[in-house]
Design a protein that fits this description.
Helix content is 47%, strand content 11%. The chain has one domain: TIM Barrel (Alpha-Beta Barrel), CATH 3.20.20.210. The chain has 16 helices and 9 strands. With 359 residues, it is α/β, with parallel strands linked by helices. Strand 2 and strand 3 form a beta hairpin. The strands form 2 sheets. A 7-stranded parallel beta sheet has the order 1-4-5-6-7-8-9. A two-stranded antiparallel ribbon has the order 2-3. The chain binds coproporphyrinogen III. The site of coproporphyrinogen III has 23 residues, from strand 3.
Length: 359
Protein backbone atom coordinates (compact mmCIF):
# COMPACT_ATOMS: atom_id res chain seq x y z
CA UNK A 1 0.00 0.00 0.00
CA UNK A 2 1.18 3.50 -0.83
CA UNK A 3 1.79 5.96 1.95
CA UNK A 4 2.23 9.67 1.51
CA UNK A 5 5.88 10.78 1.59
CA UNK A 6 5.35 12.35 5.02
CA UNK A 7 4.28 9.04 6.61
CA UNK A 8 6.54 7.84 9.41
CA UNK A 9 8.57 4.66 8.79
CA UNK A 10 6.56 1.62 9.84
CA UNK A 11 7.67 0.26 13.19
CA UNK A 12 7.60 -3.55 13.34
CA UNK A 13 8.12 -3.95 17.09
CA UNK A 14 5.78 -6.57 18.57
CA UNK A 15 3.89 -6.88 15.29
CA UNK A 16 3.08 -10.51 16.17
CA UNK A 17 1.43 -9.54 19.47
CA UNK A 18 -2.18 -10.72 19.76
CA UNK A 19 -3.43 -7.13 19.53
CA UNK A 20 -1.56 -6.04 16.39
CA UNK A 21 -2.28 -9.40 14.73
CA UNK A 22 -6.01 -8.99 15.36
CA UNK A 23 -5.85 -5.40 14.10
CA UNK A 24 -4.65 -6.90 10.78
CA UNK A 25 -7.63 -9.30 10.99
CA UNK A 26 -5.20 -12.23 11.05
CA UNK A 27 -5.60 -15.23 13.37
CA UNK A 28 -4.14 -14.23 16.75
CA UNK A 29 -2.81 -16.60 19.45
CA UNK A 30 -5.85 -15.55 21.50
CA UNK A 31 -8.52 -12.85 21.32
CA UNK A 32 -6.75 -9.70 22.54
CA UNK A 33 -8.26 -7.74 25.41
CA UNK A 34 -7.79 -4.16 26.54
CA UNK A 35 -10.21 -1.75 28.18
CA UNK A 36 -11.00 1.87 27.47
CA UNK A 37 -10.16 3.84 30.65
CA UNK A 38 -8.10 0.90 31.87
CA UNK A 39 -6.04 3.37 33.92
CA UNK A 40 -8.33 5.20 36.30
CA UNK A 41 -10.04 5.70 39.59
CA UNK A 42 -11.08 2.06 40.12
CA UNK A 43 -7.36 1.36 40.80
CA UNK A 44 -6.00 2.35 44.25
CA UNK A 45 -2.56 2.93 42.72
CA UNK A 46 -4.13 5.48 40.34
CA UNK A 47 -5.98 7.25 43.16
CA UNK A 48 -2.74 7.38 45.18
CA UNK A 49 -0.79 8.92 42.32
CA UNK A 50 -3.54 11.41 41.50
CA UNK A 51 -3.94 12.54 45.12
CA UNK A 52 -3.09 16.24 45.26
CA UNK A 53 -2.35 16.45 41.54
CA UNK A 54 -4.65 17.65 38.81
CA UNK A 55 -5.54 15.55 35.79
CA UNK A 56 -3.82 18.06 33.49
CA UNK A 57 -0.65 18.07 35.62
CA UNK A 58 -0.44 14.29 35.29
CA UNK A 59 -0.99 14.45 31.54
CA UNK A 60 1.64 17.17 31.15
CA UNK A 61 4.30 15.38 33.24
CA UNK A 62 5.68 12.52 31.11
CA UNK A 63 7.04 10.52 34.08
CA UNK A 64 3.59 10.56 35.70
CA UNK A 65 1.66 9.91 32.48
CA UNK A 66 3.97 6.99 31.71
CA UNK A 67 3.62 5.58 35.21
CA UNK A 68 -0.20 5.77 35.08
CA UNK A 69 -0.21 4.18 31.60
CA UNK A 70 1.79 1.27 33.02
CA UNK A 71 -0.43 0.70 36.08
CA UNK A 72 -2.97 -1.57 34.32
CA UNK A 73 -0.15 -3.27 32.40
CA UNK A 74 1.43 -4.29 35.70
CA UNK A 75 -1.87 -5.24 37.35
CA UNK A 76 -3.47 -7.26 34.52
CA UNK A 77 -2.65 -9.37 31.46
CA UNK A 78 -4.05 -6.82 29.01
CA UNK A 79 -2.85 -7.08 25.41
CA UNK A 80 -2.39 -3.36 24.73
CA UNK A 81 -1.59 -0.16 26.58
CA UNK A 82 -3.37 3.12 25.90
CA UNK A 83 -1.52 6.30 26.67
CA UNK A 84 -2.76 8.11 29.76
CA UNK A 85 -4.04 11.42 28.39
CA UNK A 86 -7.43 12.81 27.40
CA UNK A 87 -9.23 13.64 24.18
CA UNK A 88 -9.69 17.22 25.45
CA UNK A 89 -5.96 18.01 25.87
CA UNK A 90 -5.76 19.93 22.55
CA UNK A 91 -8.52 22.38 23.58
CA UNK A 92 -6.36 24.64 25.82
CA UNK A 93 -3.74 24.87 23.04
CA UNK A 94 -6.47 26.28 20.78
CA UNK A 95 -7.49 28.93 23.33
CA UNK A 96 -10.23 27.16 25.29
CA UNK A 97 -9.83 27.24 29.09
CA UNK A 98 -10.27 23.61 30.10
CA UNK A 99 -10.38 22.30 33.62
CA UNK A 100 -11.22 18.83 34.93
CA UNK A 101 -13.38 19.46 37.96
CA UNK A 102 -13.46 16.59 40.45
CA UNK A 103 -16.85 14.87 40.55
CA UNK A 104 -18.20 17.06 37.74
CA UNK A 105 -16.01 16.34 34.72
CA UNK A 106 -14.50 18.65 32.13
CA UNK A 107 -15.48 22.34 32.16
CA UNK A 108 -14.60 25.04 29.63
CA UNK A 109 -14.82 28.59 30.99
CA UNK A 110 -14.89 30.33 27.57
CA UNK A 111 -17.01 27.96 25.49
CA UNK A 112 -17.77 28.66 21.82
CA UNK A 113 -21.01 30.64 21.40
CA UNK A 114 -20.62 32.56 18.14
CA UNK A 115 -18.95 32.24 14.73
CA UNK A 116 -16.38 34.83 15.88
CA UNK A 117 -15.44 32.45 18.70
CA UNK A 118 -14.68 29.78 16.10
CA UNK A 119 -12.47 32.17 14.18
CA UNK A 120 -10.50 33.01 17.33
CA UNK A 121 -9.48 29.38 17.84
CA UNK A 122 -5.86 28.64 17.04
CA UNK A 123 -4.51 25.57 15.27
CA UNK A 124 -0.94 25.51 16.61
CA UNK A 125 1.67 22.87 15.79
CA UNK A 126 1.11 20.11 18.31
CA UNK A 127 4.79 19.12 18.52
CA UNK A 128 5.31 22.54 20.10
CA UNK A 129 2.17 22.86 22.23
CA UNK A 130 1.91 19.26 23.47
CA UNK A 131 5.48 17.89 23.47
CA UNK A 132 4.72 16.08 26.75
CA UNK A 133 2.39 13.68 24.91
CA UNK A 134 5.14 12.59 22.55
CA UNK A 135 7.67 12.38 25.38
CA UNK A 136 5.23 10.21 27.38
CA UNK A 137 4.87 7.89 24.37
CA UNK A 138 8.65 7.50 24.13
CA UNK A 139 8.92 6.71 27.84
CA UNK A 140 6.05 4.21 27.75
CA UNK A 141 7.49 2.41 24.71
CA UNK A 142 10.77 1.81 26.57
CA UNK A 143 8.82 0.01 29.29
CA UNK A 144 6.35 -1.79 27.03
CA UNK A 145 8.60 -3.11 24.27
CA UNK A 146 10.37 -5.73 26.42
CA UNK A 147 6.97 -6.92 27.70
CA UNK A 148 5.68 -7.51 24.17
CA UNK A 149 2.78 -5.07 24.62
CA UNK A 150 1.92 -2.49 21.93
CA UNK A 151 0.88 1.11 22.64
CA UNK A 152 -2.30 2.77 21.39
CA UNK A 153 -2.32 6.53 20.72
CA UNK A 154 -5.58 8.44 20.35
CA UNK A 155 -7.48 11.58 19.51
CA UNK A 156 -11.07 12.67 19.90
CA UNK A 157 -13.03 13.10 16.67
CA UNK A 158 -14.14 16.55 15.43
CA UNK A 159 -17.80 16.17 16.48
CA UNK A 160 -17.06 14.95 19.99
CA UNK A 161 -14.48 17.69 20.60
CA UNK A 162 -16.82 20.33 19.14
CA UNK A 163 -19.53 19.13 21.50
CA UNK A 164 -17.33 19.90 24.53
CA UNK A 165 -16.12 23.20 23.00
CA UNK A 166 -19.71 24.38 22.46
CA UNK A 167 -21.50 22.89 25.48
CA UNK A 168 -18.63 23.91 27.79
CA UNK A 169 -19.10 20.58 29.58
CA UNK A 170 -20.60 17.14 29.04
CA UNK A 171 -24.24 16.96 27.99
CA UNK A 172 -27.03 14.43 27.71
CA UNK A 173 -28.77 16.00 24.73
CA UNK A 174 -26.21 18.27 23.00
CA UNK A 175 -28.77 21.04 22.48
CA UNK A 176 -26.22 23.86 22.18
CA UNK A 177 -24.11 21.85 19.77
CA UNK A 178 -27.05 21.05 17.51
CA UNK A 179 -28.39 24.61 17.65
CA UNK A 180 -25.00 25.95 16.55
CA UNK A 181 -24.67 23.31 13.82
CA UNK A 182 -28.12 24.14 12.36
CA UNK A 183 -27.96 27.93 12.79
CA UNK A 184 -24.34 28.50 11.74
CA UNK A 185 -23.48 25.85 9.16
CA UNK A 186 -20.54 27.81 7.73
CA UNK A 187 -18.94 28.46 11.12
CA UNK A 188 -19.66 24.83 12.06
CA UNK A 189 -17.78 23.67 8.94
CA UNK A 190 -14.83 25.93 9.85
CA UNK A 191 -14.86 24.46 13.37
CA UNK A 192 -14.83 20.91 11.98
CA UNK A 193 -11.97 21.95 9.68
CA UNK A 194 -9.91 23.34 12.58
CA UNK A 195 -10.34 20.13 14.55
CA UNK A 196 -9.54 18.07 11.46
CA UNK A 197 -6.26 19.95 11.05
CA UNK A 198 -5.06 19.92 14.65
CA UNK A 199 -6.13 16.33 15.32
CA UNK A 200 -4.49 15.00 12.17
CA UNK A 201 -1.25 16.72 13.09
CA UNK A 202 -1.47 15.51 16.70
CA UNK A 203 -1.99 11.88 15.76
CA UNK A 204 0.83 12.05 13.21
CA UNK A 205 3.15 13.32 15.96
CA UNK A 206 1.98 10.51 18.25
CA UNK A 207 2.75 7.88 15.60
CA UNK A 208 6.17 9.40 14.92
CA UNK A 209 6.85 9.22 18.67
CA UNK A 210 5.93 5.53 18.78
CA UNK A 211 2.16 4.92 18.93
CA UNK A 212 1.71 1.52 17.22
CA UNK A 213 -2.05 1.73 16.67
CA UNK A 214 -4.51 4.58 17.06
CA UNK A 215 -8.08 5.07 18.17
CA UNK A 216 -10.34 7.93 17.16
CA UNK A 217 -12.92 8.52 19.94
CA UNK A 218 -16.22 9.87 18.59
CA UNK A 219 -17.95 9.05 21.86
CA UNK A 220 -21.08 11.17 21.45
CA UNK A 221 -21.62 11.06 17.67
CA UNK A 222 -24.49 8.58 18.20
CA UNK A 223 -26.59 11.57 19.30
CA UNK A 224 -26.90 12.59 15.63
CA UNK A 225 -29.35 11.35 13.03
CA UNK A 226 -27.91 9.61 9.99
CA UNK A 227 -28.79 12.68 7.94
CA UNK A 228 -26.99 15.08 10.26
CA UNK A 229 -23.95 12.83 10.52
CA UNK A 230 -23.65 12.73 6.74
CA UNK A 231 -24.27 16.46 6.31
CA UNK A 232 -22.41 18.08 9.18
CA UNK A 233 -19.84 15.61 10.49
CA UNK A 234 -18.87 12.91 8.03
CA UNK A 235 -16.95 15.06 5.51
CA UNK A 236 -14.33 16.44 7.96
CA UNK A 237 -14.18 13.15 9.85
CA UNK A 238 -13.63 11.28 6.60
CA UNK A 239 -10.76 13.58 5.59
CA UNK A 240 -9.22 13.19 9.05
CA UNK A 241 -9.54 9.39 9.00
CA UNK A 242 -8.05 9.17 5.49
CA UNK A 243 -5.05 11.18 6.70
CA UNK A 244 -4.73 8.96 9.78
CA UNK A 245 -4.92 5.81 7.63
CA UNK A 246 -1.88 7.13 5.76
CA UNK A 247 0.26 7.04 8.91
CA UNK A 248 0.98 3.33 8.47
CA UNK A 249 -0.53 2.08 11.75
CA UNK A 250 -3.92 0.39 12.21
CA UNK A 251 -6.88 2.57 13.12
CA UNK A 252 -9.98 2.04 15.32
CA UNK A 253 -12.99 4.39 15.00
CA UNK A 254 -15.19 4.30 18.10
CA UNK A 255 -18.51 5.77 19.19
CA UNK A 256 -21.41 4.92 21.49
CA UNK A 257 -25.10 4.68 20.65
CA UNK A 258 -24.12 4.30 17.00
CA UNK A 259 -26.32 1.37 15.89
CA UNK A 260 -27.88 3.57 13.20
CA UNK A 261 -24.55 5.09 12.17
CA UNK A 262 -22.37 1.96 11.96
CA UNK A 263 -22.63 1.54 8.17
CA UNK A 264 -21.60 5.17 7.64
CA UNK A 265 -18.85 5.03 10.25
CA UNK A 266 -17.59 1.77 8.76
CA UNK A 267 -17.52 3.30 5.29
CA UNK A 268 -14.62 5.53 6.39
CA UNK A 269 -12.60 2.34 6.06
CA UNK A 270 -10.72 2.02 9.36
CA UNK A 271 -9.20 -1.37 10.18
CA UNK A 272 -11.51 -1.81 13.16
CA UNK A 273 -14.75 -0.14 14.30
CA UNK A 274 -15.67 0.08 17.99
CA UNK A 275 -19.21 -0.79 19.08
CA UNK A 276 -20.99 -0.37 22.40
CA UNK A 277 -23.10 -3.07 24.07
CA UNK A 278 -26.51 -2.09 22.69
CA UNK A 279 -26.40 -4.36 19.64
CA UNK A 280 -25.17 -7.96 19.84
CA UNK A 281 -21.62 -8.14 18.50
CA UNK A 282 -22.56 -10.29 15.50
CA UNK A 283 -25.35 -7.91 14.47
CA UNK A 284 -23.02 -4.92 14.75
CA UNK A 285 -20.31 -6.76 12.80
CA UNK A 286 -22.76 -7.36 9.92
CA UNK A 287 -23.13 -3.60 9.54
CA UNK A 288 -19.39 -3.11 8.90
CA UNK A 289 -17.42 -3.41 5.66
CA UNK A 290 -16.22 -6.81 4.46
CA UNK A 291 -12.94 -7.64 6.19
CA UNK A 292 -13.28 -4.94 8.83
CA UNK A 293 -12.59 -5.90 12.46
CA UNK A 294 -14.72 -5.06 15.48
CA UNK A 295 -13.84 -3.93 18.99
CA UNK A 296 -16.17 -4.47 21.92
CA UNK A 297 -18.62 -4.80 23.40
CA UNK A 298 -19.11 -5.72 27.06
CA UNK A 299 -21.36 -3.35 29.01
CA UNK A 300 -18.87 -1.89 31.55
CA UNK A 301 -21.59 -2.18 34.22
CA UNK A 302 -21.40 -5.97 33.86
CA UNK A 303 -18.01 -5.81 35.55
CA UNK A 304 -20.04 -5.03 38.69
CA UNK A 305 -22.23 -8.12 38.27
CA UNK A 306 -21.68 -11.48 40.01
CA UNK A 307 -19.19 -13.69 38.18
CA UNK A 308 -21.86 -16.13 37.00
CA UNK A 309 -23.64 -13.34 35.06
CA UNK A 310 -20.42 -11.70 33.91
CA UNK A 311 -19.00 -15.02 32.68
CA UNK A 312 -22.27 -15.87 30.94
CA UNK A 313 -22.19 -12.58 29.02
CA UNK A 314 -18.50 -12.87 28.15
CA UNK A 315 -19.30 -16.34 26.76
CA UNK A 316 -22.18 -14.85 24.81
CA UNK A 317 -19.96 -12.16 23.25
CA UNK A 318 -17.27 -14.70 22.36
CA UNK A 319 -19.95 -16.90 20.77
CA UNK A 320 -21.21 -13.93 18.75
CA UNK A 321 -17.63 -13.26 17.61
CA UNK A 322 -17.49 -16.93 16.61
CA UNK A 323 -13.69 -17.05 16.62
CA UNK A 324 -13.57 -14.85 13.54
CA UNK A 325 -10.22 -13.03 13.18
CA UNK A 326 -10.44 -9.31 13.86
CA UNK A 327 -12.29 -9.30 17.18
CA UNK A 328 -10.70 -7.18 19.89
CA UNK A 329 -12.39 -7.72 23.22
CA UNK A 330 -13.14 -4.47 25.08
CA UNK A 331 -15.90 -2.76 26.99
CA UNK A 332 -18.52 -0.89 24.98
CA UNK A 333 -17.57 2.33 26.81
CA UNK A 334 -14.95 3.18 29.45
CA UNK A 335 -14.44 1.32 32.73
CA UNK A 336 -16.38 2.90 35.59
CA UNK A 337 -14.85 4.06 38.90
CA UNK A 338 -16.87 1.41 40.81
CA UNK A 339 -15.33 -1.47 38.82
CA UNK A 340 -13.87 -4.24 41.02
CA UNK A 341 -10.29 -4.98 39.93
CA UNK A 342 -10.82 -8.71 40.50
CA UNK A 343 -13.46 -8.83 37.79
CA UNK A 344 -11.19 -6.98 35.35
CA UNK A 345 -8.42 -9.49 35.95
CA UNK A 346 -10.82 -12.42 35.73
CA UNK A 347 -12.41 -11.36 32.43
CA UNK A 348 -9.05 -10.82 30.75
CA UNK A 349 -7.71 -14.22 31.82
CA UNK A 350 -10.99 -15.93 30.96
CA UNK A 351 -11.09 -14.48 27.41
CA UNK A 352 -7.49 -15.56 26.89
CA UNK A 353 -8.16 -19.08 28.14
CA UNK A 354 -11.38 -19.53 26.16
CA UNK A 355 -9.87 -18.31 22.88
CA UNK A 356 -6.31 -19.75 23.12
CA UNK A 357 -5.28 -21.42 19.86
CA UNK A 358 -3.35 -24.64 19.86
CA UNK A 359 -3.60 -24.93 23.63
O1 LIG B 1 -8.50 4.87 28.31
C1 LIG B 1 -7.53 5.20 29.01
O2 LIG B 1 -7.20 4.60 30.05
C2 LIG B 1 -6.66 6.34 28.54
C3 LIG B 1 -6.94 7.61 29.07
C4 LIG B 1 -8.21 8.34 28.68
C5 LIG B 1 -8.85 9.24 29.56
N1 LIG B 1 -9.86 9.85 28.88
C6 LIG B 1 -8.45 9.47 30.94
C7 LIG B 1 -9.39 10.17 31.84
C8 LIG B 1 -8.90 8.37 27.48
C9 LIG B 1 -8.67 7.56 26.22
C10 LIG B 1 -9.93 9.35 27.61
C11 LIG B 1 -10.83 9.68 26.52
C12 LIG B 1 -11.96 10.58 26.80
N2 LIG B 1 -12.01 11.67 27.61
C13 LIG B 1 -13.20 10.48 26.15
C14 LIG B 1 -13.55 9.47 25.10
C15 LIG B 1 -13.90 8.16 25.72
C16 LIG B 1 -15.18 8.19 26.46
O3 LIG B 1 -15.15 7.91 27.66
O4 LIG B 1 -16.22 8.46 25.84
C17 LIG B 1 -14.02 11.52 26.63
C18 LIG B 1 -15.45 11.79 26.23
C19 LIG B 1 -13.24 12.27 27.53
C20 LIG B 1 -13.65 13.49 28.26
C21 LIG B 1 -13.57 13.30 29.71
N3 LIG B 1 -12.41 13.21 30.43
C22 LIG B 1 -14.65 13.21 30.61
C23 LIG B 1 -16.10 13.25 30.23
C24 LIG B 1 -14.10 13.07 31.88
C25 LIG B 1 -14.83 13.08 33.20
C26 LIG B 1 -15.55 11.81 33.43
C27 LIG B 1 -14.85 11.04 34.49
O5 LIG B 1 -14.79 9.81 34.37
O6 LIG B 1 -14.41 11.69 35.46
C28 LIG B 1 -12.69 13.03 31.75
C29 LIG B 1 -11.71 12.86 32.82
C30 LIG B 1 -10.83 11.66 32.69
N4 LIG B 1 -10.15 11.28 31.58
C31 LIG B 1 -10.50 10.76 33.75
C32 LIG B 1 -9.59 9.83 33.22
C33 LIG B 1 -8.91 8.70 33.94
C34 LIG B 1 -11.01 10.84 35.18
C35 LIG B 1 -10.26 11.94 35.84
C36 LIG B 1 -9.93 11.59 37.27
O7 LIG B 1 -9.14 10.67 37.50
O8 LIG B 1 -10.44 12.29 38.15
Amino acid sequence: PQRPPSAPAVDQTNRDSAFLTAMRRERAPHTPVWFMRQAGRYMPEYRALRAGRSMLDCIRTPDLAAEITMQPIKAFNVDAAILFNDILTPLPTMGLDLDFVGGVGPQIANRIETPADVDRLGVPATAETMPYTMESIRLVRQQLDPRGIPLIGFIGAPFTLASYAIEGKGSKTYDRTKRFMYAEPAAWARLMGKFEAILGDYLEQQVRAGAQAVQVFDSWVGMLSVHDYRTFVKPATDRLIQRVKGLGVPVIYFGTGTQHLLPDMASLGTDVVGADWRLPLDEAWKLLQPGQGIQGNLDPLLLQAPWRELKHQVDRILAEAGGRPGHIFNVGHGLLPETPMDNVARVIDYVHERTAKGG
